[in-house]
Write a structure and sequence with these properties.
alpha+beta, 13 helices, 24% strand, Aminopeptidase, single chain, BioF2-like_GNAT_dom, 13 strands, GNAT family N-acetyltransferase, 13-stranded mixed β-sheet, Acyl_CoA_acyltransferase, 433 residues, globular
Length: 433
C-alpha cells in the first residue's frame, strides 16, 4: 500500500462526533490474508432478514479483491433489498474488473467498507484508494469502466447512521485527501445521505425506458406518435436495402465474436468523429470487455453480458452491448455503420432490444448518462447523475481547484477546439479498444 500523506485529512463537518465502532473479525472467518479486516472491535453474529434500526452499528474495512467473494452472500442479499442497485456494484462484475484494473500490487489499493448492525451487514461500499503524486484519492471501485458509483445499503436500517459510520471508517482508517465519484446516481444512498449536501463538479442525467407490467405494446403507446411513425419509415428504408435481421447472443462464444465486431465498429466511429473517452484509451478496457464476454456471455448467470445486432442482407450494421442483472438492462456501448446512419439504424436496434427485454422479463432498459436526443426518444424517466470531488485536506483542495475544476476542463475544451481531422488522428493514436 502506498505511503500515506504526512498531513492528516480534516474531518468532514457532519462527521464530528460520529464514533466508529470497529467490528471484530470472527475466529471462524474465511477472509483470506489479502482481504483481512483492517479495523477490529465488536463481535459479529449475523442473523435476521433485516437488521433492527436500533441495533448498534460497527464498521470494518477489507483490503483486496478477495473481499468480493467473501462478502458475496451479504452483497447479493443487499442487492435484492436495495431496488436502486446497479450491476456495477455487483461482486460478479467487480471480481472480473479487479483482474484487469487492480492486478498484482494494485490489489492492495482496493477497499471494501462493511457496516454491520446486530452482526449483520447493512452497508457495503466498494472503493479504491490510490495515490496520485502526493494526493491520496478514495474513489469507487470499477472505474473507469463502471458507469455508476455507489453504496449497497439495507433500506431497513438507520441509513443515515450507516453511511456516517462507513464514511468515518474511511476517513479515520485510510486518511484520503479527496473523495472522488464520477457517476453517482441521485437515488443511491451515498448521494441521499452524504454527498447531496455538496456542490457537484458536474451533473447529468441517465435516461431509462421503464417497460411496465402491461408489456411492450403498452410501452410503445406511451411514446410520441411521431417517433412511432419515424420508426416505420426507418424500417422501410432498411428493408429497401435487403432483409432486416435481429438477434441477441445467447452463449459466451457468440457474445465474444459479436463483441469484437462491435468494438471494431465503435473504434471506426470514434476515429471518424475525433472523440475519445477515459475508458477507451486504456488497453485494460479491451481485455476486460473480452473477459466479461467469456465469463458472463452465457444465459444462465445472475449477471449476463449480451450483444444484440441488427443486420441488413446478412451484414451487421449496428450493435448494442449491455449488462443484464435483476430485471435491468444496462446499455454499455452502441455502435453502428456510418453507411446506414441516415437510416436510423441505431434507433431501429434500440426498439428491437427494448422489445426483446420485455419478452425476457427485463423491465428497465437503462441508457445511462449522458443525455442525448436518441435516448430521449425512448425514455420514460431519468435519474440525475452527479460527479463529486470532496476535499478532506489542503492537498485535496488544491487537487479539486486546479486539476478537477481547471486543468481537466481546459484540456477537454482545447482538444475539442482542434479541427476534426486533427482530433481524428489523435483519437486513432490514443484509442486502445
Amino acid at each position: 500500500m502506498a505511503a500515506r500523506p504526512a498531513a492528516a485529512p480534516r474531518p468532514l463537518p457532519f462527521l464530528k462526533g460520529v464514533r466508529v465502532n470497529r467490528c471484530k473479525q470472527r475466529k471462524d472467518s474465511h477472509v483470506a490474508e489479502p482481504a483481512r479486516a483492517m479495523i477490529t472491535g465488536q463481535e459479529m453474529e449475523p442473523r435476521a432478514a433485516s437488521a433492527s434500526p436500533a441495533a448498534e452499528m460497527c464498521a470494518e474495512v477489507l483490503v483486496g479483491s478477495e473481499a468480493y467473494a467473501v462478502l458475496r452472500a451479504d452483497w447479493q442479499r443487499l442487492k435484492v433489498l436495495q431496488s436502486t442497485s446497479t450491476v456495477f456494484q455487483s461482486p460478479d462484475f467487480l471480481s472480473i474488473w479487479a483482474k484487469h484494473f487492480a492486478a498484482g500490487a494494485l490489489d492492495r489499493t482496493l477497499r471494501t467498507i462493511v457496516v454491520r448492525a446486530g452482526g449483520r451487514a447493512v452497508a457495503i461500499w466498494p472503493l479504491q484508494v490510490t495515490t496520485r503524486g502526493m494526493i491520496r484519492v478514495a474513489s469507487a471501485a470499477g472505474r473507469p469502466f463502471s458507469q455508476y458509483d455507489g453504496m449497497m445499503l439495507d433500506p431497513g436500517c438507520n441509513q443515515a447512521e450507516a453511511v456516517a459510520k462507513a464514511q468515518a471508517a474511511l476517513v479515520s482508517g485510510e486518511r484520503p485527501d479527496l473523495l472522488r465519484f464520477s457517476q453517482l446516481r441521485a437515488d443511491n444512498p451515498l448521494f441521499v445521505h452524504l454527498l447531496s449536501r455538496f456542490e457537484p463538479v458536474e451533473s447529468e442525467g441517465a435516461p431509462r425506458a421503464e417497460i411496465g407490467p402491461d408489456g411492450f405494446e403498452a410501452y410503445m403507446k406511451r411514446l410520441k406518435p411521431k417517433l412511432v411513425r419515424e420508426q416505420r419509415r426507418r424500417m422501410r428504408m432498411l428493408e429497401a436495402d435487403g432483409e432486416v435481421g435481429f438477434a441477441v447472443s445467447d452463449d459466451a462464444e457468440t457474445a465474444s465474436d459479436w463483441l469484437a465486431k462491435a468494438i471494431d465498429m465503435k473504434r471506426a466511429w470514434l476515429t471518424a468523429t475525433g472523440k475519445v473517452s477515459t475508458a477507451y484509451v486504456d488497453e485494460r478496457t479491451n481485455t476486460l470487455f473480452r473477459d466479461l464476454a467469456r465469463q458472463l456471455g452465457d444465459a444462465t448467470g445472475q449477471v449476463r453480458l449480451v450483444v444484440a445486432h441488427l443486420t441488413v442482407g446478412g451484414e451487421p450494421i449496428a450493435y448494442e452491448v449491455g449488462l443484464v442483472e435483476a430485471g435491468k438492462f444496462f446499455l454499455y456501448m452502441s455502435s453502428y455503420s456510418d453507411r446506414f446512419a441516415r437510416h436510423g439504424a441505431g434507433n431501429v436496434l434500440a426498439q428491437l432490444v427494448i422489445e426483446w427485454c420485455a419478452g425476457h422479463g427485463i423491465q428497465v432498459y437503462d441508457m445511462m448518462s449522458p443525455r442525448s436526443q436518441h435516448k430521449s426518444d425512448w425514455k420514460t424517466s431519468e435519474v440525475e447523475v452527479h460527479e463529486y470531488a470532496v476535499p478532506l485536506s489542503r492537498r485535496g483542495e488544491f487537487y479539486l481547484g486546479f486539476v478537477v475544476r481547471r486543468l481537466r476542463p481546459g484540456l477537454k475544451r482545447a482538444f475539442y477546439a482542434l479541427p476534426k481531422p486533427v482530433r481524428s488522428r489523435i483519437a486513432k493514436a490514443a484509442l486502445r479498444i
